[in-house]
Amino acid sequence: FPTWKRTLARRARESQMKRFCRAQAIQRRLEEIEVTFRELEQQGIKLEKLLRDENESPADQQTQWTNQLLYLVQKKNNLMTEESDLMIAVQELKLEEQQCQLDEKLRSYMNKEDALKTPEDEKAEQEILKQLVEVVNKRNVLIQLQEEKRLSEL
User: Fold this and answer.
1) pLDDT digit of tens for each residue in the chain (154 aa)?
2) Is 10 left (phi over 0), alpha (psi -120 to 50) or beta?
3) In the prediction, which pLDDT does 149 show?
4) How far apart are CA 114 and CA 82, in angstroms?
5) Are 129 and 106 in contact (CB under 8 A)?
6) Is the distance from CB of 72 to CB of 80 less than 8 angstroms?
7) What's the start-to-end Cα distance of the chain, in Å?
8) Under DSSP, is residue 50 helix (H, G, I), strand (E, B) or coil?
9) Alpha-carbon distance 98 to 93, whole Å?
10) Which of 142, 24, 33, 29 has the alpha carbon at shortest distance from 78?
11) Residues 65 and 2 sit within 8 Å (Cβ to Cβ)
């Protein structure tokens, strides 16, 4: 096994491990967001009941409850934004993994000498190249989506 092939294989494993770790971190954060959503929902229900049932409460108290409710809504909206960003990141990771697999397949066909390639090999190589371009285009769309989202938030 030549050195450059071992280096490529090692780098591929390292990048795969990094993607796996990022995917785990994203999954954990999504679970944390889900728990926080439920907690915010419960707090919101309590505040709504207080606002509806306590009509004789002082105006200051009702204003405080209303402000707390608005704060919960704002917090929930921020979490929803973070969740949508994480879902985009998940899609990006999937496409990145797919791109790496296609790169590896394409490299194996391209390393084969042209004289030894069968028409089926050439057809498979072209198909993989086509799929690779599609994956790159999808990743580009995700990046554009993230950029548009970031600019709209500013």
Assistant:
1) 678 788 888 988 999 999 999 999 999 999 999 999 999 999 999 999 888 887 777 888 888 989 999 999 999 999 999 999 999 999 999 999 999 999 989 988 888 888 888 899 999 999 999 999 999 999 999 999 989 988 888 8
2) alpha
3) 86
4) 49
5) yes
6) no
7) 52
8) helix
9) 9
10) 33
11) no
Q: What are phi and psi of 86, to 5 degrees?
A: -65, -35
Question: What is the Cα–Cα distance from 61 to 29, expressed in whole angstroms?
Answer: 35
**The model's pTM:** 0.79
For residues 103 and 135, is the Cβ–Cβ distance under 8 A?
no
Which residues neighbour 143 within 8 Å (Cβ) at sequence distance 6 or greater?
Answer: 92
pLDDT of residue 140: 94
Q: Please give the pLDDT value at position 57.
A: 73
26 Cβ partners below 8 Å, 6+ apart? 86, 89, 90, 93
Q: Are the C-beta atoms of 65 and 51 separated by less than 8 Å?
A: yes
Q: What is the dihedral of CA 143, 98, 4, 110, to 10 degrees?
A: -110
